[in-house]
Specification:
Shape: rod-shaped
Number of strands: 2
Helix content: 55-70%
């Protein structure tokens, strides 16, 4: 009986009709304790999605709350599988994130000096390059970092940098060097 119950009240649904406690109640209590401990461990894993696990656990607890401990216990195996899947998915995502971060570090090491060079030249592409670089930086400094999106933007950024460098090189070839300039005055060519 719970607090406030009187002797005339119906026996608790968790109790067997013989007056003895349900043998599954003790098993349920032990299983629930283990599940709670495992959920606490899983909750500490970065990037884990426990949405399905939490929904299933809530449904199982509702079964137990109505006194149907055997039914609740029958679902523990399914819950355990859902927990294992969530942990495996989180581990795979962490591995993928680590690989993407390593690729980003390589790309960043190559791009950073090129971006600085092109931006210092104030070319026609500078604004576009600055905008794309700012977007990339915002993605890699986000919480959690979005290396995948940043890496997708690397190709277009590299093309813009290449175009800017080519344009700058062509401008340098078109402009004659000082000292070798031929001046034209009154239709006559004079050498400086």
């Amino acid at each position: 009986p719970q607090k406030g119950d009187t002797a005339e009240d119906e026996p608790d649904a968790a109790e067997a009709p013989s007056g003895k406690s349900d043998p599954f109640a003790e098993k349920w209590a032990a299983a629930a304790t283990k599940v709670e401990a495992n959920l606490a461990k899983l909750g500490g894993i970065a990037g884990i999605d426990l949405t399905q696990v939490t929904a299933l656990w809530t449904a199982i607890q509702k079964k137990a709350d109505t006194g149907t401990y055997k039914e609740a216990l029958d679902y523990i195996a399914k819950l355990s599988e859902a927990m294992k899947t969530a942990a495996k998915d989180a581990a795979a995502q962490a591995k993928r994130q680590s690989m993407l971060e390593a690729k980003w570090q390589q790309a960043s090491a190559k791009l950073t000096p090129l971006v600085a060079e092109v931006l210092s030249q104030k070319s026609a592409q500078s604004e576009k390059i600055q905008a794309v670089w700012a977007l990339i930086q915002s993605k890699v400094t986000a919480t959690p970092p979005d290396f995948e999106t940043a890496l997708k933007a690397v190709g277009p950024l590299a093309r813009s940098i290449s175009e800017a460098r080519q344009a700058d090189a062509q401008e340098a070839q078109v402009e004659p060097a000082p000292g070798g300039v031929a001046a034209v005055e009154d239709g006559e060519t004079l050498t400086a």
